[in-house]
UniProtKB/TrEMBL annotation:
The chain crosses the membrane at residues 89-110, 122-142, 201-225, 232-250, 295-311, 323-339, 345-364, 376-396, 402-420. GO terms for molecular function: hexosyltransferase activity. It comes from Actinoplanes auranticolor. Coiled coil: none annotated. Keywords: Cell membrane, Membrane, Transferase, Transmembrane, Transmembrane helix. This is Alpha-1,2-mannosyltransferase. Residues 445-491 are annotated as: Disordered. It is a multi-pass membrane protein. GO terms for cellular component: plasma membrane. Belongs to the glycosyltransferase 87 family. It is found in: Cell membrane.
Length: 491
């Protein structure tokens, strides 16, 4: 009897935690919905009703905001069921779908970090999810009824696929013969699904669907091509084109209108000079006190930020941190877009996670701490300040140019200074690192200190050569004796 009572306690605790989590989620959605009123979903829903009545889909303008829908045709098919439901019910269903996508993304991103430090994943994931619900981008995405959290979840699924594919290839290279844990070789649908899950064969599908829903994730396809992840890049391109072709078959007129006119309007999602626009174009428009942005100046600085973002993302990929690489691309897309509303800044979540992880790694792996020096304190302060900034949203309450452009300035700083963590989430087999070991990396002795990131790939081969495949498994531990020396994340 005592043993049965002891076994029943964890199940009761889990049920209580799940119940409290759902109560918290429902309370959060209720509060957020009262503030934002599912405004974006209301406009998209009214535009679809307008189109079903025989008028043009993109010709509709809201009588309150004078804005129309800016979603591409594939995304409108996702929103179209809202026409047959009352707006509050449609908004609640959209918000619950967004919370589900956010929860799955938190499991994929936070669980490996928790396991790396010997923590139980589910309490850390619950805490991270609760904190994520408090930041302005998540609040705005849920309250306005947008698809940004679904887009974020689709791209995160591709990160998981790339990591699983890399680990499957690495396991095949290091383990002689066919591993017992490999999926069966049958051709039944269940066997194919298990094999696809084990090998990450779906890499690129998430980015392709996200591109079809929001257009701007096409930058991730460019990143996949820059890093020579050709299979994922081709899969993403094919998925996006297939979705666009399907939308053209269903609604050719609206698809042609979108590609020929709506796509090229800079202000299609809102006024450029509005405070809610936290992109570089919005900053320049507010500086020049103009209804539009100086195009040449905006394009010049945007190209510079794109180059910096892609170069640093490629370096993070080469050092084995695919999460940081995708985060840098997401932050770059947000800052260079013509109109980037607050609900499109979801990539601030993994950026804060990376800063916290970099601070913890510095603190845990520092063998000697000089008096008055706290390893990782700078990264911890940066994570805390970034989180508070995106919780408080000072652009709505404080006057002044700094508060009006605070999110855009934070994005620019993160694109230029976000660290990465060598070897934590490689998207390629670790045997690729072995062939890229330089003579300097071979001569460098192992050290227990760890930097927050680096742009050189030397740390990757050094880590893989000394540690073997177990240290590079997604979420696996990193022995202190095999961690590369610290590097400046900005170089």
């Amino acid at each position: 009897m005592p043993a049965m009572r002891t076994a029943a306690r964890p199940a009761t605790t889990r049920c209580l935690v799940v119940l409290l989590a759902w109560v918290g989620i429902l309370a959060a959605i209720t509060t957020i919905a009262q503030r934002y009123g599912f405004s974006t979903l209301a406009v998209d829903r009214a535009a679809i009703i307008h189109a079903l009545a025989g008028d043009g889909l993109y010709a509709y303008r809201s009588p309150l905001t004078h804005l129309g829908t800016a979603l591409p045709p594939p995304a409108l098919f996702v929103v179209s069921p809202a026409v047959f439901l009352p707006l509050p019910l449609a908004g609640w269903l959209t918000a619950l779908a967004g919370v589900a996508a956010l929860g799955l993304s938190m499991i994929a991103l936070v669980s490996p970090v928790a396991r790396r430090y010997g923590r139980r994943p589910w309490p850390v994931v619950l805490a991270a999810g609760a904190l994520a619900l408090t930041i302005e981008p998540v609040r705005a995405a849920l309250g306005r009824g947008t698809l940004d959290l679904l887009v974020f979840g689709l791209i995160t699924a591709d990160i998981v696929a790339l990591r699983r594919g890399a680990w499957a290839l690495s396991r095949a290279a290091w383990w002689p013969g066919r591993p017992a844990s490999s999926p069966p070789r049958g051709r039944t649908p269940g066997d194919l699904l298990r094999r696809g899950w084990a090998t990450g064969a779906w890499a690129g599908v998430g980015v392709g669907l996200a591109t079809a829903l929001a257009v701007t994730p096409a930058f991730f396809i460019v990143y996949l091509a820059v890093t020579r992840q050709w299979r994922a890049a081709l899969t993403a391109t094919g998925t996006a084109l297939t979705a666009a072709f399907a939308a053209w078959l269903v609604s050719p007129g609206e698809t042609v209108a979108w590609l020929g006119e709506v796509l090229w309007r800079i202000d299609r999602t809102g006024p450029v000079e509005a405070i809610s626009n936290q992109s570089l174009a919005g900053v320049l428009a507010r500086i020049y006190d103009s209804a539009t942005t100086p195009v040449l100046l905006w394009l010049s600085f945007s190209l510079l930020l794109i180059a910096v973002g892609l170069i640093r993302a490629r370096a993070a990929h080469a050092d084995g941190d695919e999460i940081a690489a995708f985060t840098l691309v997401g932050l770059t897309v947000a800052i260079v877009g013509p109109v980037t509303d607050t609900h499109e800044l979801i990539w601030i979540l993994p950026a804060v996670l990376i800063l916290i992880d970099a601070a913890a790694r510095r603190r845990v792996t520092s063998p000697r701490r000089p008096p008055g020096r706290r390893p990782g304190l700078a990264f911890a302060l940066a994570a805390g300040m970034t989180y508070l900034l995106f919780v408080l949203a000072p652009m709505w309450s404080l006057p002044g140019p700094f508060s009006a452009n605070c999110y855009a300035l934070a994005l620019i700083l993160l694109v230029n200074a976000l660290p990465w963590r060598p070897g934590v989430a490689p998207a390629f087999p670790i045997n690729r690192w072995l062939g890229r070991v330089s003579s300097a990396a071979r001569r460098r002795p192992a050290t227990a200190d760890l930097g927050g990131g680096g742009s050189s790939a030397a740390g990757g081969p050094h880590l893989a050569r000394r540690a073997g495949p177990a240290t590079n498994r997604p979420g696996g531990p990193l022995p202190a004796a095999t961690i590369p020396p610290p590097r400046d994340p900005g170089r």
